[in-house]
Amino acid sequence: MYGLPAELDLNFLVGPILLQVCIGENEVILNFDGEISITIESSFLVRDPNGLEIVFEDSQSAAGSLVKLISDAIAKVHGQSDGTLRLWFTRGDILEIYDSFESYESYQIQHGKDIYVV
Description:
It is a single chain. With about 120 residues, the protein is mainly beta. It has one domain (about 15-110). It is built from one helix and ten strands. The chain has one helix at about 65, and strands at about 20-25, 30, 35-40, 45, 55, 75-80, 85-90, 95, 105-110, 115. The strands form two sheets. The chain has a five-stranded antiparallel β-sheet. The chain is globular. The relative contact order is 0.28.
């Protein structure tokens, strides 16, 4: 578990629109405008606007919940020192990404040439 550095300013994640969801065997890649992507290789939670929460342990079962977020923008972001990244989308969905592996990368955030590994 790498966690998120306390000094990391995640405000660059507020505003970008989700353009593409890529589903692989072991990862999900979320591509946003503004040269931003998030690659998820750990468990994550999707909460819809009605409060229905689903925790996903694998990428393929999450496809239906994630494609609904395409064309939506991130309205708010919060990173915790334990590595949890929480993204609120403008239509009301919340995506929580967890730092769930002690010895492996859980997710990466790419912003232009900068890459943050958790």
